[in-house]
Write a structure and sequence with these properties.
Blueprint: H1 18-35, H2 47-56, H3 59-64, H4 73-84, H5 91-117, H6 119-131, H7 133-140, H8 145-165
Helix pairs in contact: 1-5, 1-6, 1-7, 2-4, 5-6, 5-7, 5-8
């Protein structure tokens, strides 16, 4: 390459690349879509199973029993612990774990994609995760779906890191 023609493989010295800027923009956009009108969303259906169980059953029962009413054991246990510590069960408070996990999924996926597939793919994937209707829904409901997606994705990333390096520290 001549000195006048930049090497396309060389990192840009003029600041963040378009891909990095796209990922950075996708993170608040994803959080914004997940938060939009969240305070007006009413608990209903299966979401109420966790609330009813957290209010009616002791923690030991929640952790050791499975009932026909479909509630998430970790989420219900968390609600029970929160309630036992004096916290109140507000709709926004109960939706917070799912919202946080859904918002964290965007940068987690984009960092992993950038490492494995490059910045352009990471930018596109960040926007797909940020705006995915199913992932947005999972982040807005009082169910274990958003934490499950986040932790399963993190586990897959750790497994790939371990496969590449055979080092526990990398995972």
């Amino acid at each position: 390459m001549s000195e006048l023609t930049p090497d396309p493989q060389a990192p840009s010295r003029s600041g963040p690349s378009w891909a990095t800027a796209a990922v950075v923009a996708a993170c608040p956009a994803g959080a914004g879509v997940r938060a939009w009108n969240l305070r007006y969303q009413v608990l209903g259906g299966d979401e109420l199973h966790a609330v009813a169980t957290a209010l009616a059953k002791p923690l030991g029962w929640i952790l050791t029993n499975y009932s026909l009413a479909d509630y998430s054991i970790p989420l219900t246990a968390g609600l029970r612990i929160w309630r036992a510590a004096g916290g109140s069960l507000t709709e926004i408070g109960m939706r917070t774990p799912g919202f946080v996990c859904g918002a964290l999924l965007v940068p987690l996926v984009s960092v992993a994609a950038r490492r494995a597939l490059g910045g352009a793919v990471a930018a596109r994937l960040a926007w797909l995760v940020a705006l995915s209707p199913v992932l947005v829904l999972y982040s807005r409901i009082v169910r274990s779906y958003a934490p499950m997606v986040l932790f399963a994705t993190a586990a897959a990333i750790a497994a790939f890191a371990w496969i590449e390096t055979r080092s526990r520290r990398a995972a």
